Amino acid sequence: MTAAALKALHVPGKPLVLANVWDADTAKLVEAAGFPAIATSSVAVAAALGFADGERAPAGEMFAAAARIANAVGVPLTVDAESGYGLSGAELAGRLLDAGAVGCNFEDTDHATGQVRAVAEQAQRIAALREAAGDGLVINARVDSFRGVDAKEALSDGVARAKAYLEAGADCVYPIHLRSPELLAEFVQGVGGAVNAPVWPGGPGLEGLAELGVARVSLGGGLWDHLRKQFEKTVAAVAGGKLPY
């Protein structure tokens, strides 16, 4: 499946909904449920491999997991590539395309320092990735500048950052830590391009997010976390002598 097919699914007001997966089996289930695209969650993939999130898993293992997922499904795959694992734009594009991905998340957090990169630096990184990938990847540029700050005060800077990323070649921007429906609506209007919204507890839900004009909705690690808690309860019951079936 092509990047063009994935990009076409990003429709403001009628967003692409992504139930993020962590292995080939969960990817098959998501495809069978009728989702038109598959996305990975870095926290979930890393956990399944025995590592913490934040680029602590070896890049080779993460790309190998992505390749297994791509080989298991027939719909477009977008990979959570975190902050690029220290790879150049050309190296990252090559690894993603070799794995069978046609899209990626690309964060502006520097995991070596824990800080959000300067706008100009991240824009250059996005431009390098775009140049190397051509039209072969849908780049979803994550905007992490809303983390741990007053979202209202950070809004204008976040919008400017998102615009810079779109101008550099990103197809969509993802303010993952922006959890106010009102501010998210302002962000969407201010950016004037495709916006990916997260799903969060107590949030407006899928219909509400669509009404805000977003073009993409991600469950991120939420689905993995929900199912992991269910599994934890089930095995605790088994340990207590109660079989679930």
UniProtKB/TrEMBL annotation:
Q: What's the name of the protein?
A: Isocitrate lyase/phosphoenolpyruvate mutase family protein
Keyword vocabulary terms for this entry: Lyase
Q: Which Pfam families match?
A: PEP_mutase
Cross-referenced Gene3D superfamilies, in alphabetical order?
Phosphoenolpyruvate-binding domains
| SUPFAM superfamilies, per database record | Phosphoenolpyruvate/pyruvate domain
Q: Which PANTHER family match?
A: CARBOXYPHOSPHONOENOLPYRUVATE PHOSPHONOMUTASE-LIKE PROTEIN (AFU_ORTHOLOGUE AFUA_5G07230), PHOSPHOENOLPYRUVATE CARBOXYLASE
GO molecular function terms noted in the UniProt entry = lyase activity
The domain of life is Bacteria
Source organism per UniProt:
Amycolatopsis nalaikhensis
